[in-house]
Every structure is written in structure tokens, then in C-alpha cells.
Amino acid sequence: MADLATKIRNQIDFYFGDVNLTRDQFLRQKMSESADGTVPVSVLLTFKRLRTLVGESLPEDEATTKILDALAGSTVVVADKEAKGIRRATALPESVVIDPATAYVKPVDVKYDLDQLKE
User: Dihedrals φ, ψ of 80, to 5°?
Assistant: First the structure.
């Protein structure tokens, strides 16, 4: 089973990944509010799955630090510790080819993490 930092990075990478971002109007809207597409971590902490993963009782500043630290090594996003935000490492492609075997499932109970869903 992956450690907590890896789970956080995987979840953020999923949010900002090509397939999810093509469907996620809310996150794209938040990205458009910044010149470089940076989304404040405070916005991402409103996502129940991420907030549960980080720890619901953790103060926002500590949760933000935990998330930004976990993103070291991500190839999908860049963490801006000074701005306390996250942006894609590369521009979103104009078209995304979705594997026909890909299933989009919503909602998924927050008690399951990405590792459990992959099994």
C-alpha cells in the first residue's frame, strides 16, 4: 500500500490529469482565474476525497504544507509553495484520446482510496 504522500500526489495528479481535466469544468474555471493556471490549495481542500486523505481535522495551513510537500516528484503538476498553489506542468492538450476501456464512475465513496479502486 502506498504511503500518504504518494496517495496525495496520485490524487492531485488525477485531478490535473488530461482525462479528468477535460471533464472537470469547476477545476478548469479555477485555473482560468490565474494567468498561469495556478489553483490555490485552499480550493482543492474543498474536495472531500482530498480533504479526507489529508486529514479533516488538520488546520488548513498544515494541510496545505502537507499537500505541497507531497507533490515533489510529480510530473503532472508544479507546486508553488510561495503562492500556496498548484498548476499543471504542461498545457492541456487540445484533444485527449480516451481509452475505450476507460470507465468514468461518479460518485465513489470517500472511504475508498485510489489504490483500493485500482484493485
Answer: -110, 95
With 0-12 / 13-18 / 19 or more C-beta atoms within 10 angstroms meaning exposed / middle / buried, residue 117 is exposed
| pLDDT tier at 102, thresholds 50, 70, 90 | low
For 37-80, the pLDDT digits (tens) are 999 999 999 999 999 999 999 999 999 999 999 999 899 999 99
Inter-residue contact 45 to 54 (CB < 8 Å): yes
CA torsion angle for 63, 37, 13, 73 (degrees, to 10)? -80
Question: Which H or E run contains 64?
Answer: helix 60-70
- What does DSSP assign to residue 5? H
In the structure grid, which three cell numbers stand for residue 33, read together?
482565474
First to last CA, the chain: 11
Q: Is 62 helix (H, G, I), strand (E, B) or coil?
A: helix
Sign of CA dihedral 87, 76, 62, 51: positive
